[in-house]
Amino acid sequence: MVFKADASGPKAPAKTARKVARPRNAFILYRGDWHAETVRQNPGMHNNQISKIIGNQWRFEDGAIKQRYKELAEEEKRQHAIDHPGYQYQPRKPHEKKKRMSKKKLAAAAEK
């Protein structure tokens, strides 16, 4: 198994200079390594289905491979702490989440 993930951080720059992305966890690194291959094997499949396939693959993955990705995630977390010393995760507030929801999702949430 070749590990493509590295602890250098996300490939795409953040959309705004103010927002610092969270460090990626082990599964996100794994998913990044397997996404292109899974898409190639399943052309035309939607991204949510691709994620399910990779999620099942991760669930049954060998412990040594999972451990390697956990180590990569820890290294990325350490580097993130060095690059952004005052960083603290701040989840979106409920009103910010509602702003991003589509009208259809808002209607479904109101019915519950």
Automatic annotation (TrEMBL):
Instruction: Determine if ATP-binding is one of this entry's keywords.
Output: no
Q: Where is the composition biased (Basic residues)?
A: 92-106
State any GO CC term.
nucleus
SMART domains registered for this protein in UniProt = HMG
Which key words are in the record?
Answer: DNA-binding, Nucleus, Transcription, Transcription regulation
Alphabetical list of InterPro entries matching this protein:
HMG_box_dom, HMG_box_dom_sf, SRY-related_HMG-box_TF-like
Under the heading Gene3D superfamilies, the entry gives: High mobility group box domain
Q: Which Pfam families does this UniProt record tie to the protein?
A: HMG_box
Q: Which residues bind DNA?
A: 20-88
Tell me the superkingdom of the source.
Answer: Eukaryota
Q: List, in alphabetical order, the Gene Ontology terms for molecular function in this entry.
A: DNA-binding transcription activator activity, RNA polymerase II-specific; RNA polymerase II cis-regulatory region sequence-specific DNA binding
In terms of SUPFAM superfamilies, this protein maps to: HMG-box
One GO BP annotation is: cell differentiation
Using the record's annotation, list all stretches that form the HMG box domain.
20-88
Region feature Disordered, mapped onto this chain: 75-112
Name this polypeptide is given: HMG-box
Naturally occurring in which organism (per UniProt): Polychaeton citri CBS 116435
